[in-house]
Amino acid sequence: MDAMRIKGGVRLQGEVCVSGAKNACLPMFAATLLTDQKCVIKNVPDLSDVRFMAEIVASLGAKVSNPKPNVWEIEAKNISSRAPYDLVRKMRASICLLGPLSARMKRAEVSMPGGCVIGARPIDLHIKGLKALNCAIETEGGYLKVDARRMKGANIFLGGRFGSTVTGTANILMASVLASGTTIIENAACEPEIADLCKMLAKMGAIIDGIGSPTLEITGVPKLGGAEHTVLPDRIEAGTWIIATLATRGKVLIKGAVKKDLGALIDILESAGANIQIKSKSDIFVDGEGLKLKPVEAVTMPHPGFPTDLQAQLTTLMTQVSGISIITERIYPERFMHVSELGRMGADIVREGPSAIIRGKTPLSGAPIMASDLRASAALLIAALCAKGETFIQRIYHLDRGYESIDKKLALLGAKVERISDSDLPSF
């Protein structure tokens, strides 16, 4: 197992290219199961989550290949309707197989996803949506079993306690494209990754109106064909680079940072005094040199609100800003696993229910720390870049789930980062 050694105190400088969006390509891999023809997906990041999803799709009988970097070809001619526990347990996002298998095979058996360190992530809205589409569902032996022989279009409201559901929207969207009649999904997730999935499905022959809006209208078709699609840039990676540049007081041109997908983050950071320059529709320059940022209050919300996947990174930035900042988590109220590890580095953060109260500016010092989940790992990495001395981050396989070659990209920006094995860790 790998760890990461970071020597802090270096300003990030130069150019960095954002990889394709993990949260878009995972449901796209699932969408290839909707047709027996070949699909080609480009700009796919080289991530462990992507490789897991490719393995799962292949286990169902699809021909899966990676002919060149960041390009995957999938042809699902003869597939099984059963996704086994041994593979599905590796990644919660594999639940998005449920919709495509139900639609294509008229039945599906998918292992129930397990728990998650960031809190409860129920799939009740997925089940509600499939039942509305006239599917019969039962749970047996840890599997969700779907009988979709009578599937037909319906009006479905996908709202939940914490707003819309991204993976649930993807699942019901993919199920409905082959359902007879018309389906209207209200309170659909508006995330750019859902819009990108819709664009791929449209290339395959799906009929979808309202793309990018909270109301999707899908007219079912008898069959879908193959398609070629390029995944949009990862807005969460782009946001992480913006925050890391400000935290280190650096200067970085971020290529693949799309302003319209980062509006809430940019608004919060500009209100704090950040110098963020829009160079083109997909390039952003961040100049953190000499800035005196102000504290902020931020609340995570479904898109186009401030994304939960950038909450931990913003928390780290605010430890380096004088004053009191308050960050409230409305999507996953328990998503504060990074707080205790930041405290070990010198941060002054207090939890009050779903909020983190951050007193800055506090000097951070290098320490051995443990990553608990993907975005917490990014937050700790940013802290390590700011800290005095050396930081050793263990369990960096979390980072490898969502950030392609992040150590190499950081090195190109001047960071002193080294990937090491756990056996090479010093005694603490």
TrEMBL record:
Question: Does this UniProt record's set of keywords contain Ligase?
Answer: no
Annotated metabolic or biological route of this protein: Cell wall biogenesis; peptidoglycan biosynthesis
Q: What is its EC number?
A: 2.5.1.7
Q: Which residues form the signal peptide?
A: none
Kindly list the positions at which 2-(S-cysteinyl)pyruvic acid O-phosphothioketal occurs in this protein: C116
Give the UniProt subcellular location, in the record's own words.
Cytoplasm
| Residues annotated as binding phosphoenolpyruvate | K22, N23
> Which CDD domains does this one have?
UdpNAET
Annotated Gene Ontology MF terms? Answer: UDP-N-acetylglucosamine 1-carboxyvinyltransferase activity
In terms of PANTHER family, this protein maps to: UDP-N-ACETYLGLUCOSAMINE 1-CARBOXYVINYLTRANSFERASE
Family that this chain belongs to? Belongs to the EPSP synthase family. MurA subfamily.
Query: What is this protein called in UniProt?
Result: UDP-N-acetylglucosamine 1-carboxyvinyltransferase
- What is the scientific name of the source organism? Intestinicryptomonas porci
Provide the taxonomic classification: Bacteria, Pseudomonadati, Verrucomicrobiota, Opitutia, Opitutales
